[in-house]
Specification:
Elements lengths: L1 H15 L3 H5 L1 H87 L1
Helix pairs in contact: 1-3
Length: about 110
């Protein structure tokens, strides 16, 4: 931050001076400009890396959401199949109970006669 302030304070001085006085500060100005460019490139790289990590996290989040949707649909399908199986089993048990009662009645009737 202090370097930025120094650069901005020196820039108006070098721009207003003309001739030999401006050339005298030229190496300092070049060094400051180089340092500023280096810092800017570092900032660019850090920002780019940070944005990449955000994008990766976003992609992971999207993958998680889509995977959750697939699992949710699979759960619903299995639930429907289990309900159908339960209904079929209950129907079979009721038929078996009915058959057993009629068999017992026929067996009881034949033993009474």
């Amino acid at each position: 931050m202090n370097r930025m302030v120094v650069i901005f304070l020196l820039m108006p001085v070098t721009w207003t001076q003309r001739g030999a006085a401006a050339e005298k500060h030229n190496p300092l100005h070049q060094r400051l400009r180089r340092r500023l460019n280096q810092q800017f490139k570092r900032f660019q790289q850090m920002t780019f890396t940070h944005l990449q990590s955000i994008a990766e996290k976003h992609n992971i989040s999207n993958n998680t959401d889509s995977r959750f949707q697939v699992l949710s649909l699979e759960f619903k399908r299995i639930s429907r199949e289990l309900r159908a199986f339960k209904a079929m089993t209950e129907h079979s048990l009721n038929s078996l109970k009915s058959w057993t009662k009629s068999y017992e009645f026929c067996d009881w009737r034949s033993s009474v006669s």
